[in-house]
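User: If only I could read backbone structure tokens as easily as an amino acid sequence. Those tokens are not coordinates but codes from a learned vocabulary of shapes. Could you go through the record with me and say what the backbone is doing? Here is the record:
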Amino acid sequence: MDSAATPVPVPVPDEAAAPARDDDNDDVDGEVTEPGAAGTGEEEEEVMPMTTADGTSPIDEDSDYATPTTQLAFGVTALMYLPGVVLSATDKSVTRRVQVNGRDLVAKYVDFNGGPKHSGFSYRELVDLMENEVRAYLYLKAAGLEGQLAPRFVFRGSDINFIWVFVTTYEGESLEKLAELDNLGPDVRRGALASLRRLHAAGVLHGDVELRNAVLRPSDGAVVWIDLEMAQLRGDPSVEDFDACAEAEERALAAHFEPSAA
């Protein structure tokens, strides 16, 4: 993926809601209507898929593309309505672990409309953070590192109106939680540093190297990094010296493992 890709726009809260769609494309007799079969005699343009798992579909209300929704993607009314476990909650987002169609997932909810009223983040900042995280995940996927250094990206779209959700696979407990349980052994610490160095070697700066943003995957003992919304890529105009920034992140992580930081 081009590291300089422009973030995809999302609906502006002040605009009117998009008109209701007939998601089943049914006519009055309940039969499926094919494109161009409305009796106009004209060929209709091909309608793009209503949901994507790649996060790249245009999702502004003026687009001809349908807004990706969790109902279309997962067949549920909203992920927010499913039972789940809250993993974290801030004035910016709420992150929950949920089981969806037999999949163990993590859903991070951001209220683009209400969030700015109750936090220090503007609407534009909330949008840019989510879209930047999409960019980082797609970059890793293009590099053949999907699921290796970070969870697998599953979906980004509307959960309920302007409450949007960013969904990845669930990989395990955070290193912060393991440290609280005094279960952060030397193998895990070495694995975390090695994983961060691989992330840097792939051309990605995490941007927020804290133990809460690294998780231990029990299936293979790997440490993967989550919450990539602050990530920067090698070549980004905002990164003046990528290697120096990478070294600073590695030092910061190592400092978390020092006895005084425990």
User: Anything to note?
Assistant: The first strand starts at residue 84 and ends at 89. Residues 1-40, 43-54, 58-63 have pLDDT under 50 and may be disordered.
